[in-house]
Amino acid sequence: MFKYQRQFEDFLGQALRPNSKGQTYTFCPFHDDRRQSLSINVASGLWKCHAGCGQGNINILKNRMRRHIRRYL
Length: 73
Ligand SMILES: [Zn+2]
Fold this sequence. Notes:
Bound molecules: zinc ion
Strand order of the largest sheet: 1-2-3-4
Number of strands: 4
Low-confidence stretches: none
Mean pLDDT: 93
Shape: globular
Radius of gyration: 11 Å
Protein backbone atom coordinates (compact mmCIF):
# COMPACT_ATOMS: atom_id res chain seq x y z
CA MET A 1 0.00 0.00 0.00
CA PHE A 2 1.34 3.42 -0.97
CA LYS A 3 1.61 6.21 1.56
CA TYR A 4 -1.36 8.23 0.34
CA GLN A 5 -3.53 5.51 -1.16
CA ARG A 6 -5.89 5.13 1.78
CA GLN A 7 -6.40 8.89 2.07
CA PHE A 8 -7.20 9.28 -1.62
CA GLU A 9 -9.60 6.33 -1.40
CA ASP A 10 -11.34 7.89 1.58
CA PHE A 11 -11.73 11.25 -0.15
CA LEU A 12 -12.89 9.80 -3.44
CA GLY A 13 -15.04 7.07 -1.92
CA GLN A 14 -13.65 4.33 -4.11
CA ALA A 15 -10.85 1.78 -4.31
CA LEU A 16 -7.87 2.76 -6.46
CA ARG A 17 -5.60 0.42 -8.41
CA PRO A 18 -2.30 2.24 -8.89
CA ASN A 19 0.54 0.87 -11.00
CA SER A 20 3.94 0.02 -9.54
CA LYS A 21 4.88 3.71 -9.44
CA GLY A 22 1.69 4.66 -7.59
CA GLN A 23 0.11 6.25 -10.66
CA THR A 24 -3.57 5.84 -11.45
CA TYR A 25 -6.52 7.57 -13.11
CA THR A 26 -10.04 7.99 -11.88
CA PHE A 27 -13.11 10.13 -12.35
CA CYS A 28 -12.67 13.74 -11.28
CA PRO A 29 -15.08 14.67 -8.46
CA PHE A 30 -15.04 18.35 -9.44
CA HIS A 31 -16.69 18.15 -12.85
CA ASP A 32 -19.04 15.86 -14.76
CA ASP A 33 -16.31 13.44 -15.74
CA ARG A 34 -16.81 10.52 -18.14
CA ARG A 35 -13.19 9.96 -19.14
CA GLN A 36 -11.29 9.47 -15.87
CA SER A 37 -9.57 12.84 -16.15
CA LEU A 38 -8.11 12.80 -12.66
CA SER A 39 -4.49 11.67 -12.55
CA ILE A 40 -3.34 10.64 -9.09
CA ASN A 41 -0.03 9.52 -7.66
CA VAL A 42 -0.67 7.75 -4.37
CA ALA A 43 3.07 7.57 -3.65
CA SER A 44 3.71 11.32 -3.90
CA GLY A 45 0.20 12.49 -2.99
CA LEU A 46 -0.02 14.67 -6.12
CA TRP A 47 -3.06 14.90 -8.39
CA LYS A 48 -4.13 16.71 -11.51
CA CYS A 49 -7.39 17.02 -13.42
CA HIS A 50 -6.64 17.02 -17.15
CA ALA A 51 -9.93 18.84 -17.81
CA GLY A 52 -8.64 21.85 -15.89
CA CYS A 53 -10.16 21.57 -12.41
CA GLY A 54 -6.75 22.03 -10.85
CA GLN A 55 -3.84 20.19 -9.39
CA GLY A 56 -1.84 19.99 -6.19
CA ASN A 57 -1.04 17.85 -3.21
CA ILE A 58 -3.37 15.83 -1.03
CA ASN A 59 -4.10 18.73 1.33
CA ILE A 60 -5.30 20.86 -1.55
CA LEU A 61 -7.53 17.99 -2.65
CA LYS A 62 -8.89 17.70 0.88
CA ASN A 63 -9.77 21.40 1.01
CA ARG A 64 -11.25 21.35 -2.47
CA MET A 65 -13.45 18.37 -1.53
CA ARG A 66 -14.73 20.13 1.58
CA ARG A 67 -15.66 23.26 -0.36
CA HIS A 68 -17.14 21.20 -3.16
CA ILE A 69 -19.31 19.12 -0.83
CA ARG A 70 -20.53 22.21 1.03
CA ARG A 71 -21.57 23.85 -2.19
CA TYR A 72 -23.84 20.96 -3.14
CA LEU A 73 -25.40 20.18 0.24
ZN1 LIG B 1 -12.04 17.84 -13.16
